[in-house]
Write a structure and sequence with these properties.
The chain is 52% helix and 15% strand. Helix 4 (53-71) packs across helix 7. It is elongated, with a radius of gyration of 22 Å. It is an alpha/beta fold and 192 residues long. It is built from seven helices and seven strands. The longest helix is centred in the last third of the chain and has 42 residues, at 148-189. The chain starts with a strand and ends with a helix.
Length: 192
């Protein structure tokens, strides 16, 4: 497959996945994964508590992928890897969401701070964490921050909007199908 030209930029992109990531909104959301998992109501249920840590991480990534797809925003979730006894060597790619485990001896906070510091435009970064010290740190570096609880409300609202759009689309398809069915049936009874 040949390179794709990113409209209006003159950039040649060699992969549709890279094109998808680059073509998304220029706002980058960095999520402290364990902060979100410890703060979000969906992970406080009995069902969620019965899940393994890996299953809860996968559920968080799934929800964030839906949010990223709906909002068009780039999302990276960072998990602490320093204390993981069985840190995944390979993280399954998740289109729309980048998953990172901090290096041995580093925390997710360390990794997020490094990412903010290395970013070309920190003002386009929103860090999601309920750690107030971390929020002040990244804000001092030029990024925005939001608590995991407020971000959960934003994500849940976006997912409700998405579900409504899917229901609306499904109803339109079903209505069209029913209309087509009745039109065919009417044509047959008229002898057409």
């Amino acid at each position: 497959m040949g390179d794709l030209l990113l409209p209006g930029t003159g950039l040649h992109i060699s992969s549709p996945l890279v094109y998808h990531c680059v073509a998304m909104s220029d706002q980058w959301i960095l999520v402290d994964g364990y902060s979100a998992m410890h703060s979000w109501k969906r992970f406080a249920t009995r069902k969620a508590q019965a899940m393994t840590l890996q299953q809860r991480r996968e559920e968080l990534v799934k929800v964030l992928r839906q949010f990223a797809d709906h909002s068009g925003r780039r999302v990276t979730v960072v998990f602490d890897g320093y204390a993981a006894k069985h840190k995944p060597e390979v993280v399954e790619p998740s289109p729309g969401v980048e998953v990172i485990f901090s290096e041995r001896g580093k925390t997710a906070d360390d990794t997020i701070e490094r990412m903010v510091a290395e970013a070309e435009n920190g003002r386009r970064i929103q860090v999601v964490t309920s750690d107030n010290v971390e929020r002040r740190t990244v804000e001092a570096m030029g990024a925005e921050s939001i608590s995991a609880e407020l971000f959960e409300a934003e994500v849940e609202s976006a997912l409700r909007d998405l579900a409504g759009a899917v229901r609306h689309h499904s109803r339109r398809r079903a209505t069209g199908t029913i209309r087509e069915h009745w039109a065919r049936k009417t044509d047959r009874t008229r002898g057409g």
